[in-house]
TrEMBL record:
Organism of derivation: Sphingopyxis fribergensis
Domain TonB-dependent receptor plug stretches: 38-145
Record's GO cellular component terms: cell outer membrane
Compartments in which it is found: Cell outer membrane
Designated name of the protein: TonB-dependent receptor
Any one GO biological process: monoatomic ion transport
Gene3D superfamilies: TonB-dependent receptor, beta-barrel domain, TonB-dependent receptor, plug domain
Domain TonB-dependent receptor-like beta-barrel: 179-588
InterPro entries: Beta-barrel_TonB, Beta-barrel_TonB_sf, Plug_dom, Plug_dom_sf, TonB-dep_rcpt-like
Family membership noted in the UniProt record: Belongs to the TonB-dependent receptor family.
Top-level taxon in the UniProt lineage: Bacteria
Keywords: Cell outer membrane, Ion transport, Membrane, Receptor, Signal, TonB box, Transmembrane, Transmembrane beta strand, Transport
Length: 614
């Protein structure tokens, strides 16, 4: 088992985690509009395009796992169900956005998002907000928000392509082109991935293969300086062999196929020299999941989840030191099910209004506060509040942050209406989240240290009630902890980033078997350390070490999961002005570990590839 000593914790807290950030960074998850990072009082991590390329990660989960406050689990081979927990929240309590579109699946049991099919492909930026923030984002933002964006079109014309090959006959390739001509800017990209994989059953011998294609497109047309049209699209097609077992793990012939469609169409209008801006948009997401007991036959059962949304957002800036953000949203989630001789179809309507004020009463201080009300066609209304502040006494070298956020999560359509276990009287899950932190820049910006303490209480959490065989509002949970981050650039050629987080997430339901127990698959301690060096002759080398503490696989804490340490190394070298050769070795020391009980994980694996830019 992996043990964390007191000495190592003190050292990491004093000198640890994340991705390099500056006061000029722009964030969108805090208030729903672009704003300088040092205006936001919330804990936000940015994973930019350079970091994604340097790390060579194919899987978004691998990048998120190095972020403070994040815990993850995967049920086997690449493409298998992968879940993300932020600050100890349920995996269904993370809101996920792709290019501004909410992609949580209405056909899932808890409206969660399966990160298993989300590869880095043409993802250009990831923003992770930790803490409840339903004022801006509505339902599901209890643990926080993960927002992913594809690249904005380049000025002029640009193209990128890469291909790599490695362990288990794995092939990954991607390409994109973009450009701007006058008032029109656009881009299109595609990514393909295939692998023979590993056995999803930990003791299995048959490999579970996986194929994934992702495509994205953007188009922006500026009709004038004040009016523009914004179109975005994202698509994933996936095909997975997986092992389905009850009791002892075993190989099986099961197959899962996915089609995910994401669309955004919006109009942007700016008036009065930009002092009043409006955005009206329609977004659409559809998840089609089909499951087969044997490949080559008709699907045995399947789910389809759709979410159609209308959004209006207005921003008024009466003076430079104040902004008022207000909006209206209408959302219609629905799901369909077929299989085992039956079908089911359900839908709901949600109408929401919100208002948020950002005020800078004097230099260095930014205060944000807001309120939101959501009206759900089934359970009624939910009102949430939130406020945060960021104060810098020295023009951004020091930032002191504090935030209070309320979150709620609407019951899923499955939990409300399922013929066997649904409960139409369910109330929304609610949370109150507090955090306080400090960011300190040192040595003329060559070092950034960040420390955050947080607490979140969640009530009316929905869980399956074994006494009534239906879903009920039976859980209460509490999560508290500390996140520490460090970014170092002692010389121009060297970048060092690190993160440590302590999360104490426990059941507070009062039920004798579970009360006081740690929530499943949420290790208390996790550390990530990454270093990259650019040599004078063009070679770049790097390494990442991730250590995760012990946890439990079940709510009763009867099935332990041992902690583990994973190390990876990487290198790249340019070949002329437009090409680059790169390679990496994951799980360098071939560690034997598990993120979910009885499910397999990858051993040592090597990959190599080439990139081209023009």
């Amino acid at each position: 088992m992996l043990k964390f000593t007191t000495l190592s914790l003190i050292a990491l807290t004093a000198a640890t985690p994340a991705f390099a950030q500056t006061g000029d960074d722009i964030v969108v998850t805090a208030s729903g509009i672009e704003q300088p990072r040092d205006e936001a009082g919330q804990a936000i991590t940015i994973i930019d395009a350079d970091t994604i390329e340097t790390r060579q990660s194919v899987d978004v989960v691998d990048l998120l796992a190095t972020t403070p406050g994040v815990r993850f689990s995967r049920t086997g081979s690449m493409g298998s169900v992968a879940s993300i927990s932020l600050r100890g929240a349920e995996t269904t309590q993370t809101l996920v956005l792709i290019d501004g579109v909410k992609v949580n699946d209405p056909s899932g049991i808890g409206d969660g998002y399966d990160f298993g099919h989300l590869l880095t492909g043409n993802i250009d930026r990831i923003e992770v907000l930790r803490g409840s923030n339903s004022v801006v984002h509505g339902s599901q933002a209890i643990g926080g928000v993960v927002s992913l964006t594809t690249a904005t079109p380049a000025e002029g014309f640009a193209g990128n392509a890469s291909a790599e090959y490695g362990y288990s006959d794995t092939l990954a390739a991607k390409a994109d082109v973009s450009g701007t001509a006058g008032r029109i800017a656009g881009g299109i990209g595609g990514a393909y991935f295939r692998t023979d994989g590993i056995s999803s059953a930990a003791t299995g011998t048959e490999k579970d293969g996986y194929k994934n294609f992702a495509g994205n497109a953007r188009l922006k047309v500026a009709f004038s300086d004040a009016l523009s049209l914004d179109l975005r699209g994202y698509y994933i097609n996936a095909d997975l062999d997986y092992d389905s077992f009850f009791g002892a793990p075993a190989d099986s012939a099961d197959v899962a196929k996915l089609d995910q469609y994401v669309g955004y169409a919006g109009l942007n209008l700016g008036l009065f020299d930009g002092r009043f801006t409006s955005r009206a948009a329609v977004t659409w997401m559809r998840n089609d999941r089909d499951y087969y007991f044997v490949r080559g036959t008709a699907p045995d059962y399947g789910y389809s989840g759709t979410n159609l949304r209308f959004e209006y957002q207005g921003v008024v800036t009466p003076v430079e030191q104040a902004k008022l953000i207000f909006g209206y949203e209408h959302e219609r989630p629905d799901y369909d099910f077929f299989g085992f001789g039956s079908t089911d179809s359900q839908r709901a309507n949600i109408d929401s209004v919100y208002a948020l004020g950002i005020v800078q009463p004097f230099a260095g201080l930014s205060v944000t506060g807001g309120v939101r009300h959501d009206d759900h066609s089934q359970f009624g209304g939910a009102t949430t509040f939130g406020a945060n502040a960021n104060y810098s006494p020295n023009e951004g070298a020091t930032n002191v942050r504090a935030s209070y956020g309320e979150g709620f999560k609407a019951p899923s359509l499955y939990q409300l209406y399922d013929a066997f276990s649904g409960n139409a009287t369910l109330r929304p899950e609610r949370s109150k989240s507090y955090d306080i932190g400090i960011d300190q820049s040192l040595a003329d910006g060559r070092a950034l240290v960040s420390l955050t303490a947080f607490l979140r209480d969640t009530t009316d959490q929905i869980n399956y009630d074994n006494a009534t065989f239906t879903y009920g509002n039976i859980d209460r949970t509490r999560a508290k902890g500390v996140e520490a981050t460090l970014a170092l650039k002692p010389v121009d050629a060297l970048n060092v980033t690190a993160s440590y987080s302590y999360i104490d997430a426990r059941d507070r339901s009062g039920r004798p078997v579970f009360d006081g127990k740690r929530l499943p698959r949420r290790a208390e301690h996790a550390v990530s350390l990454s270093a990259d060096y650019d040599w004078s002759f063009g070679l770049s080398t790097g390494a990442t070490l991730t250590m995760v503490g012990d946890s439990f696989d079940d709510a009763a804490n009867a099935v332990p999961l041992d902690g583990y340490a994973l190390a990876g190394i990487r290198a790249s070298v340019p070949v002329g002005p437009n090409f680059e050769i790169y390679g990496r070795v994951d799980n360098l020391f071939d560690a034997d570990y598990a993120t979910a009980f009885n499910y397999g994980t990858y051993g040592r694996a090597a990959y190599g590839g080439v990139r081209a830019r023009f």
